Amino acid sequence: MKKLIELENLTKEFNGQVVLKGIHLDIHENEFMTLLGPSGCGKTTTLRIIGGFEEASAGEVLFDGIDISKLPPHKREINTVFQKYALFPHMNVHDNIAFGLKIKKMDKSIIDQKVLKILTLVGLENYGNRHISQLSGGQQQRVAIARALVNEPKVLLLDEPLGALDLKLRKAMQVELKNIQKEVGITFIYVTHDQEEALTMSDTIVVMNDGAIQQIGTPTDIYNEPENRFVAKFIGESNIVEGLFVKDFLVEFDGQQFVCVDKGFDEGQEVDIVLRPEDLDIVEVGQGKIEGVISSILFKGVHYEIMVETSERTYTVHTTDINEIGKKVNLDFWPEDIHVMEKMGTY
Amino acid sequence: MKQFRKLVTPYCLWLFLLTVVPMLLIVFYAFTEKGTAITTFSFTLENFTKFLDPIFVSVLFRSLKLGLLTTGVCFLVGYPIAYMIAKCKDTTQTILILLITIPTWINLLMRTYSWISILSNNGLLNKLFEAIGMNSVNMLYTDFAVIIGMVYNFLPFMILPIHASLTNMDKSLLEASQDLGASPIQTFFKITFRLSLSGVLTGITLVFLPSISAFVIPKMLGGGQYSLIGNFIEQQFITIGNWHFGSAVSLILAVFVIGLMALIFMAEKRTNNSVEEEEGGWLSNAKRKKVR
Amino acid sequence: MRKERKSVRILWIGVCLFFLYFPLIIMAVFSFNDAKSLTHFSGFSFKWYGSLFENTQLLDAVLVSVSIAIIATIVSTILGTITAIALSKSKKIVRTSILQVNNLPIMNPEIVTAIALMLFFSFANIEKGYMTMLLAHIAFCTPYVITNVLPKVKQLDPHLADAAMDLGATPFQTLMKVIIPQIKPGILAGALFAFTMSFDDFIISYFVSGNGVENISIVVYNMTKRLNPSIYALSTIVLVVILFALLIGTFVPYILVKRKGVKMNEEVN
What we know:
Chain B is mainly alpha-helical and about 290 residues long. Chain B has helices spanning about 10-30, 45-50, 55-85, 90-100, 110-120, 125-130, 145-165, 170-180, 185-195, 195-210, 215-220, 230-240, 245-270, 280-290; strands spanning about 30-35, 40-45.
């Protein structure tokens, strides 16, 4: 796929505080990219720099190979879906969506056609004359998306657009957004702090923290092969264990050596090891790898969340099997369930 | 908490005595004339037919003209200022708004009094004109002086509500407009100005209404014979002593002003129908903004 | 380009502030003038301040203005607060109709209110003087107190009063210990409003007073024809007092809030 946007050494300071520490990122055509991270990690600032609402302190934004860092927002072929939609309260749905087209002085008949088409796309055919205040949150959300998409931008920026919706609607909109993206076939850059949302929709996830990119990868990569402790902790619940990389395909933690599938670290290097709760099995004593006692059981709907206390630490296990508190058990896992990561500062 | 309900009674009585009865008296006087005996009154509509008198028509016309001019000047000067203040940093804004408000806390007559010495024939302004080699201009006791005095006194009431409506505006709406391709100037006219209209309407109300019924400023800066509706009413009561005609003029003025406020209220509701109004609250809100 | 725009902004705001403050500065400067001229500054002196304190007419007017403002503020604040609380508990129809009438003096041109009150006092055969002025001031101040206090009362959690009475407080104790402290900001704002309205009033006082009872505004009005620097001296004193009160009233809470804000930020971080 062709590179559409390149961020080169993007840096941003606010009143002497560094919010972005030299970001490098390539965004491709037709890609659904998510910037994921906790609040204050710099993801929204990155988005606002791409949109032209914020000027970078240093670095470049290349669009189709041309530097657009100094271009004001109204001259960029990029549109934004704002966090709280930012729909104009003095216009109805039709006029909100037609705003950008009217600015471009298009024919009224063409505008009406385009507006109707895009309203159909977001499922609001008959809402053109409605006033903004008469719409529900989900409907306002769709209007905001339609208003941006009708201008046929090459890139759509979305700043936590689902944050204001309730859980059920959010899930439905996730699917819908992904479908819309496939249908219009343009690049979406999506900002969120919700890892589940990111995993569901994205082609590429960029995990950010503290103004720097932690990892770039597909959802499966990010989930299964977190590059560091931060990513592992941020994406889903994890058991993160400090260990030693003995040699290729062999690690040591909790005083035992285990076969794994990782290679390429230095021999004897200190590493962090991730064991996902759903990868751990609770088995009868003597049949597993680590001994422990069940200290608590929480029912979570689909599964049980069980704490197993071992001599070294407490492991979190997700299982559908029924167990009882106080029972002595063993923990079992496969070599491919062990994810070895570079050790870095604790979070 | 229903025990507290009956506490409303004293104020009800008070309102009846000092608001309702006095207003009814105006109506009563407006529709009557003195009878033959001192204590008798008879019904008449003559007080209202007197309005067709060219003298009164010219007074009315003049009041409207000066009111509109004052409001226009206040708007043209005040909007840019409100806009520029809204663009400043937060602390600067607080200080500037305070600076704009302070003069309104000082007695209107005292403030206006100072303009006499500035505008008079051998006043400061004319001295300045002479110093730079210009002829002195007769300014005091002219329309110009009255408008200057009214703009000076009412300008803050235009700036403050407009500034409030500008700062209450959601900044992301302006970003959205630019994002959709509108230049900063297009954004200003299509979004910013439209969304500040409620503030503009409040400002116009707070300037236009006091300026058409103004009475002290035209008297001080416009000279004794200078006649606007306010002065006309005063003359009828104090100098001429025709309480009936004076009451009729007052009644007309009250109906006109209250009717206009109701119209503006409806216009405001239309421009801003997302904002819910408190019962009967808007009109008093408009005036309440004066203090802030 | 940006710099240019900024300087235009500073210039425009500067000119506007100059326009608003120039007359006040002129007033203050010429109050210290040696001569009687209000256009030519011939030397510094305090003589107009001296003559101010010999001018019994002006001093009486100051006394009238201050005493009426204080009494009218106290009465209208108490009356307005009680009414606002009562209104919040009344039936909707009672509340709306009373508020409509209450809005009349606010919406009416001041001169109409003045005429109406004047007609009333002459109709009721009350001799015009200090008492009529005071009654009139209470009448036009109270509506403003109500419009300031009522929203605060409405924001109150209705269960607060229930809770207080549940814990054994009498209605009066509930009022004094629970409701009033909660709506204090509204009451203070209303009282401040009432005070400035009363202190600065001219039109209504002018029409309803008589028998030589004059407040500052009326004296200033009567002196329009004969310029008198003593008025400047008085205005300057009033200006300084107001500025001082504003300084205390605005900046002290502002600084306190700011300090608190900083503290809260620190806690968050």
